[in-house]
Amino acid sequence: MSSQSPARPPAARVVLLTGPSGSGKTSLAARTGLPVLNLDDFYKEGTDPTLPQLPDGGGADWDSPLSWDAGAAVAAIDALCRTGRTAVPVYDISVSARVGEAGLDLGGAALFIAEGIFAADVIARCRTAGLLADALCLRGRPTTTFRRRLARDLREGRKSAPYLVRRGLRLLRGERTIVARHTALGAHPCATPEALARIAAARTADMTGATGAAVRS
């Protein structure tokens, strides 16, 4: 008989929150009151030779999952789930570069949000590792998403205005395809009220589980 003890379950689990750019992921995550990992901070730098390019010669395709370091994002999620803390890059979209590093500590929370437009691309890995509490894809009216995204990107000076308008129109045309892709990868498509309800249910389940484990120990 093996003397090895079973692997300890993770101390926390993650809700992966995805959806088209401008769908309201960041504001929804803030409303939950849970710790939040911003997955957009794992973009590759603008000088990275592996960056995918737009077919029209308009520069890097920042809406392709290949513009993002999925491996580093999963490593950060894993560290948060197992140790409650990790170091994350600080990314400045306006200059397409990492400008620093910051620490993220869950403060004992048993659940946290990891949000970003590529979150669906790591659903399978998080589920296999036993880290996933839920995976959600925010969806709404494409025209509303377009207006919200463009206003935010112009306000924050993320890129030049002509680039942002071209990108916005391209994403407007492809929004339903984006949601369908995230759904196919395992994210549940929903609007904000349902997303908040599912996150609250996951939080309750994890709190109940943590209480039960404490009693058994």
TrEMBL record:
This is Uridine kinase. It comes from the Bacteria. SUPFAM superfamilies: P-loop containing nucleoside triphosphate hydrolases. Keywords: Kinase, Transferase. GO terms for molecular function: kinase activity. It comes from Streptomyces celluloflavus. The keyword Kinase applies. The keyword Kinase applies.
